Amino acid sequence: MEAVAEAVNPAIGDKIMTKYFVAGGAGFIGSHLSTNLLADTTSTVVIFDNFSSGREWHIAAIRNDPRLTVVRGEISDGELLSRSMTGCDTVFHFASNPDIAKAVTQPDVDFWEGTYLTQQIVEAMRKTTPRTLIYASGSGIYGDVGRLEVKENHAPLVPISTYGASKLAGEALIASYCHMFDFKAAVFRFANVIGPHQTHGVVYDFVRRLRKDPSRLAILGDGTQSKSYIHVSDVVSAMRLIEMKHISRFDAFNVATLDYLMVKDIVDMTLKAMCLEKTERCFGTQSRGWKGDIPIVRFDTAKIRALGWKNVYTCREAMAKTIDDIIADEDAGRFDIR
Ligand SMILES: NC(=O)c1ccc[n+]([C@@H]2O[C@H](COP(=O)([O-])OP(=O)(O)OC[C@H]3O[C@@H](n4cnc5c(N)ncnc54)[C@H](O)[C@@H]3O)[C@@H](O)[C@H]2O)c1
């Protein structure tokens, strides 16, 4: 893809600015984080994205901010990456394959669109200016531990998907670069993140399938999968709290709600919101939705809560709000992908 650098920052007076680099900043979580960063008048932001799942409309609200630079490029292009990162202080890294099930047919996808991209990021940091990294890892690193509420220091870490493996490899690379090249980093193991701009995930799939065929809804798994779904605004507040006040050499944080939802509850909530309660529900027979899916996910979030973070929305509140937002996005014809 041809790289296009746009809207290079003008002078911002005498203020001491923090310069952020957001890899994957046009994506779901990255676009909310970038918007939050720019709400702070002492921030400038470089969004670096290949727009594979990122979208222009995700960043429409900040697109004309003179403190924003958007670079349309591939993270595999190390030269462009380093050039774009030069001058920045802190990197947020969100770019990866978002589709856990994709590896069933493309087993190396999480290496090339996960581990390799993280290697590119830390290497570009080593060669340039940023010394702080915030990384979007995931609960997949813990593997399938049933109902155990995992703490950040849980061991052994045995991922059961290549997605989980690539997140764990990313964390390991980052930890080693922190110690060898004097970076500081925080890695975040999020629950399922939901909210506006979402481009994948269970509610997104349900709404889109029901729009195609409102008479029946095929559900991956038997509906008993039970997980935490956290609103994207709560995830952004967690990352900002750590990045601004509690950054250390290397640290990991679970970020999740205290409550959980089953997939069959999400089915009921979605059908109700779409006035489709009579739709046929076609559940699968296995508790696992797909190979690599972890049907029960539980987190211990005491570590970040002790630092003052708490989620504003419960799982059910976040889900209800997200279902409405996704329906509104569908109605507005914003989903041009997948
Ligand atoms: N959404 C969740 O529930 C969740 C949970 C835990 C962890 N995470 C992690 O958080 C991160 C962000 O997730 P998201 O849901 O916002 O996904 P997303 O797909 O919306 O965002 C990823 C962004 O990275 C960009 N990108 C991907 N490959 C790239 C490349 N090679 N070069 C440049 N840009 C590239 C995409 O265009 C997109 O804008 C991911 O790493 C994901 O694994 C997400």
Describe the protein's architecture and organization.
Residues 1-11 have low confidence and may be disordered. This protein has an 8-stranded mixed beta sheet with strand order 1-4-3-2-5-6-7-12, with helices on both faces. A two-stranded parallel sheet has the order 8-11. It has helices at residues 28-39, 78-85, 109-127, 162-181, 202-212, 232-245, 263-273, 302-306, 315-331; strands at residues 4-6, 18-23, 43-49, 68-72, 90-93, 132-136, 184-190, 192-194, 216-219, 226-227, 229-231, 250-255, 261-262, 280-283. It folds into 2 domains: 4-194 and 230-255, NAD(P)-binding Rossmann-like Domain (Rossmann fold); 202-227 and 259-298 and 314-328, UDP-galactose 4-epimerase, domain 1. Helix content is 35%, strand content 18%. The chain has 338 residues and is α/β, with parallel strands linked by helices. Strand 5, helix 3 and strand 6 (132-136) form a beta-alpha-beta unit. It binds nicotinamide-adenine-dinucleotide. Nicotinamide-adenine-dinucleotide is lined by residues 24, 26-30, 49-54, 74-76, 94-96, 98, 113, 117, 136, 138, 190, 192-193, 199.
CATH class of the largest domain: Alpha Beta
Distance between the termini: 20 Å
**H/E order of the elements?**
EEHEEHEHEHEEHEEEHEEHEHH
Major pleated sheet: 8 strands, mixed
Decide which structural class fits the backbone: alpha/beta
Helical segment count: 9
Q: How many DSSP-defined strands? A: 14
